[in-house]
């Protein structure tokens, strides 16, 4: 009985060591005496103990590789680009992915460097920022074509960061700030110009309305004088006497108005007994002469 147990125990150990589990989204390479034997998929699998060996496990999940590439642009600016490549091993090409490449990450990195240093030197720095999607598409296209032969499918390539030299970034920020200040100054100048134009328009409109008011005022004054002369004429006072009376009345009204305001300035004419009389006679003579001239003009027009 003990001898039977001694035989069963080694058999159980051999069976147990021959069992292995493969996780989901994983493939296992099994070799027999150093030679490829089979590819095992997810689940419980059996291998021959001491004969078969698990050579490696291949993940079928999407993986990501981040690579930083330093290169120079067309305008001689050194820049660092961070490239993120997402790749996946094809289930039907696990053998190629395991046996054809010694170090897949180094191979992919080398292809990324080659593509980036072929594309970026054709662009100036501003275009690198604007056309980063084109760079990513070029990386994905060329890398996908190269890696398919090794069982790798390039799912996506992204340019996640563009980092130029620190001095270049400072200069770019200064240029941007200067451009914004220029735009701000232009807007301020436009606003000031509009303000000046509107102020000039308002002043012109004010002068126009003021001139119209003065003209209306003078027209009403003339109409009032004309009515006053007509009233005096109807009372038997001739035009010369009526004009003299109106002038004297306006003269005393002016003096009264000046006297009512303590801050008024008064210019005094020569103060002699005949000064006011002479001024009145001169004004009346001028008015009479103007009246005669108007009457002569009216007669000449009637004769024509």
Automatic annotation (TrEMBL):
Transmembrane regions: 6-22
Origin species, per record, is Urechidicola vernalis
Under SUPFAM superfamilies, the record lists: Band 7/SPFH domain
**Is Transmembrane set as a keyword in this record?**
yes
Main subcellular location: membrane
Q: Where is the protein localized?
A: Membrane
Q: Which UniProt keywords apply?
A: Membrane, Transmembrane, Transmembrane helix
Q: Supply the name of the protein.
A: SPFH domain-containing protein
Q: Where is the Band domain?
A: 17-176
Q: How does it sit in the membrane?
A: Single-pass membrane protein
């Amino acid at each position: 009985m003990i001898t039977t147990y001694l035989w069963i125990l080694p058999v159980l150990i051999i069976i147990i060591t021959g069992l292995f589990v493969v996780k989901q989204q994983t493939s296992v390479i099994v070799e027999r005496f150093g030679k490829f034997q089979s590819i095992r998929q997810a689940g419980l699998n059996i291998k021959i103990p001491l004969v078969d060996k698990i050579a490696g496990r291949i993940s079928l999940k999407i993986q990501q590789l981040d690579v930083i590439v330093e290169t120079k642009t067309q305008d001689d600016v050194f820049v660092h680009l961070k490239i993120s490549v997402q790749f996946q091993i094809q289930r039907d090409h696990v053998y190629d992915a395991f046996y054809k490449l010694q170090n897949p990450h180094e191979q992919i990195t080398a292809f990324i460097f080659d593509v980036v240093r072929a594309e970026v030197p054709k662009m100036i720095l501003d275009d690198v920022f604007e056309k980063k999607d084109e760079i990513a598409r070029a990386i994905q296209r060329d890398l996908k074509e190269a890696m398919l032969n090794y069982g790798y499918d390039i799912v996506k390539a992204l340019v996640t960061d563009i980092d130029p030299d620190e001095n270049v970034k400072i200069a770019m920020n200064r240029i941007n700030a200067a451009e914004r200040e220029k735009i701000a100054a232009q807007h301020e100048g436009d606003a000031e110009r509009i303000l000046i134009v509107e102020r000039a328009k308002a002043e012109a409109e004010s002068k126009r309305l003021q001139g119209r008011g003065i003209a209306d005022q003078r027209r009403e004054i003339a109409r009032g004088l004309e009515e006053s002369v007509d009233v005096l004429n109807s009372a038997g006072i001739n035009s010369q006497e009526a004009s003299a009376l109106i002038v004297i009345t306006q003269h005393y009204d002016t003096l009264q108005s000046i006297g009512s305001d303590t801050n008024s300035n008064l210019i005094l004419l020569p103060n002699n007994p005949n000064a006011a009389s002479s001024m009145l006679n001169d004004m009346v003579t001028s008015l009479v002469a103007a009246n005669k001239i108007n009457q002569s003009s009216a007669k000449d027009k009637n004769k024509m």
